[in-house]
Design a protein that fits this description.
alpha+beta, five-stranded antiparallel β-sheet, four-stranded antiparallel β-sheet, 22 helices
């Protein structure tokens, strides 16, 4: 109950959910001694305090928090007893709601869900929803009802986690809303209802989050269920409306147990809102270590050399494929190697060893895997990752050396000064090729510097500043590492312009409805009518984090010049990265919480976890740490 009480104040006033009201335009596209450590921490604390803007606190729903708590306690009692009162028992009447949805999970999987709704609030809905959930769960139980049955039921009921979604009102959709994607609302915060005749069916945001659907998709599924014969399956909401269907939305209070025997918490978009003041230097270090641990846990557990597995669906606890692509394998190894360079703790040493082992696995092609040296982007990313290892260590390792030679051969076929980039290379990967050419100097005596410079200049000349984001982070890192080009003013101006556009398209807290405050700090890349951020924000962020520590891009000291402003913007972005990480309350949605913990989701409403998202998040945080160390070492003297 502690988790409930702590959040009651935040949920006690009124607000209305709506899609982000952002005014932005959509965009296509190691250690120190104690004294030194204290000084660094004080500077950091002051900067964060100056840069943070506290957003106003408004409540999640019209539903009063104390009433929601009363309802949850009642549901919990019935579930633990595995019994609900009869229809004539006055105990069935509790808090008055228009919508009540009860979801029961066992071992992370939904075993029962019940719902009850009406246009006029009723004191019976919570009872009806709980009764439905228990009945559906009981129908799945098998076994003889012998002397041990009651003991089995009692033990099972104690292991079930509960989620309730409650709303006091249900509101009709306007005709204009029916034509908008997702009815014009951000996914995962509102529930949807569909009626036909005297029947009304509802679906809460919890269900939409695990099904990866928006409100429109959920409404169409409900309408098809009401039709019962599949005759409406191809109709859009406007067509369904003309066939007697009506559409509604409701704004629920959601309470859920994050785990067995834990008190319930108020839930926002499936999880918990990460407040800006939670992002501190220690937070960034903790995030890095936790994401690194998660990433290392994504390797194939069998004897085969599959390396890292593909995208994880935490709702089912399964990966979409036994192995990731060559590019994804290599960028994951690269992220672990770069993170491992930041310190000498056990987690750093383990990360380096895992990164090296992953590259060895990449050199062994199992059935079904693509040959990394036949993939343009896979070869380039592998060269970049291998460059983090000492050449003498590579030459002494048969697998790594074979991988080095083959991927370098592929790299040399991807660009020629006379003809430019090979047609097989995607335009968005030209920066990746340039970075690989720069890094190849660490792996091979052949001098590719002139060729890399030619390729880099071509990319900058042919790419408008707004489109440079598609080349990040690799083009930026390549420009920074080529010494003679590191201070090229035209390239610096272009990259600074790109960063400016990134910040222009960053969602600001003051531009968002209360229900969408968890999107703050994300970068928008789509031109849809409801622009929303996702894990793709991490691609430019990884290099923008590097730019903070580079005086060519961010002159000044911890308290002067452009540094304080850029720190504030970056901290907002890091807050969004933290929001994308699956921790705390959001784990209640997952079949295997431990394997998913600290994975980076595709979006706050899409629980799938691409391994590239983990790698880019780890790289972004590692570069942020490097930049802070660089800034704290500046004296401000010429």
């Amino acid at each position: 109950m502690g988790g409930l009480i702590n959040m009651m104040h935040e949920h006690n006033t009124l607000s209305q959910h709506k899609s982000p009201k952002s005014n932005i335009k959509a965009w296509n596209m190691h250690t120190t001694d104690n004294k030194a450590g204290m000084v660094l921490w004080l500077k950091w604390a002051i900067l964060v305090w100056l840069c943070l803007i506290v957003s106003p606190t408004v409540a999640q729903s019209e539903m009063d928090a104390s009433k929601s708590l009363d309802a949850y306690v009642q549901v919990q009692q019935w579930v633990r007893d595995w019994d609900v009162p009869g229809v004539n028992d006055p105990e069935i009447h509790s808090v008055s709601t228009a919508v009540a949805i009860v979801t029961l999970r066992l071992d992370g999987k939904v075993i029962g869900r019940g719902s009850s709704a009406s246009f006029k609030p009723s004191t019976r809905h919570i009872w009806e929803a709980t009764k439905g959930a228990i009945e559906r769960a009981s129908a799945k139980l098998t076994g003889d009802h012998d002397a041990m049955w009651d003991e089995f039921i009692s033990e099972m009921a104690s292991q079930i986690t509960i989620a309730v979604e409650l709303a006091e009102t249900i509101v009709p959709m306007s005709e204009s809303e029916l034509t908008l994607p997702g009815f014009g609302y951000t996914p995962g915060v509102l529930g949807v209802g569909v009626s036909r005749g005297d029947r009304l069916e509802v679906l809460g945001p919890e269900s939409m989050l695990i099904q990866n659907t928006d409100m429109t998709q959920a409404a169409m599924a409900l309408a098809n269920g009401l039709a019962g014969d599949g005759s409406m399956v191809l109709m859009d909401p406007k067509e369904l409306a003309s066939n007697g269907f009506s559409f509604y939305r409701f704004e629920p209070v959601v309470l859920a147990q994050p785990g067995v025997s834990m008190g319930a918490s108020f839930i926002d978009r499936g999880g918990r809102f990460v407040a800006p003041n939670e992002i501190r230097m220690s937070t960034i270090g903790d995030m890095s270590r936790n994401i690194a641990r998660h990433l290392m846990g994504r390797r194939w557990a069998g004897v085969e050399g599959y390396g890292f597995m593909g995208t994880l669906d935490p709702v089912t606890g399964k990966s979409e494929s036994m192995f990731a692509s060559a590019f994804e394998q290599a960028i994951s190894a690269y992220a672990l190697l770069r993170f491992g360079e930041l310190g000498d703790a056990e987690i750093h040493r383990e990360s380096i060893l895992t990164g090296v082992d992953a590259l060895r696995d990449l050199s062994t092609v199992e059935d079904g895997e693509e040959l990394p040296w036949e993939s343009d982007v896979g070869s380039c990313m592998t060269v970049i990752a291998l460059a983090q290892i000492q050449l003498i260590d590579i030459l002494g390792d048969e697998k790594l050396n074979a991988l080095r030679l083959r991927t370098l051969d592929k790299l040399d076929s991807l660009y020629a000064e006379s003809t430019g980039f090979d047609e097989s290379v995607p335009v968005g990967s030209h920066g990746l090729v340039v970075h690989a050419m720069v890094q190849a100097a660490k792996l091979d005596p052949r001098d590719r510097t002139s060729l890399a410079r030619s390729a880099m200049r071509r990319v900058f000349d042919e790419t408008p500043v707004p489109a440079l984001v598609a080349q990040m982070p690799f083009l930026g890192w390549a420009q920074q590492e080529l010494e003679s080009d590191a201070s090229d003013e035209s390239m610096i101006d272009a990259l600074n312009g790109m960063r400016g556009l990134v910040w222009e398209h960053q969602l600001k807290r003051d531009d968002l409805e209360w229900s969408d405050r968890d999107l703050a700090g994300g970068i928008v890349f789509t031109s849809s009518s409801t622009p929303l951020p996702s894990w793709l924000s991490l691609r430019p962020l990884a290099f923008v984090a590097t730019m903070l520590g580079d005086e060519h891009h961010t002159p000044g000291t911890a308290g002067s010049g452009e540094v304080p402003v850029e720190i504030g913007r970056l901290i907002d972005a890091v807050r969004y990265v933290r929001q994308l990480c699956a921790t705390d309350e959001v784990l209640h949605l997952y079949a295997s919480p431990e394997s998913a913990k600290w994975g980076v989701r595709k979006a706050l409403w899409d629980q799938r976890m691409p391994i590239e998202a983990d790698a880019l998040a780890l790289l972004s945080l590692a570069e942020t740490t490097r930049s802070f160390r660089s800034i704290m070492g500046r004296t401000g003297e010429d």
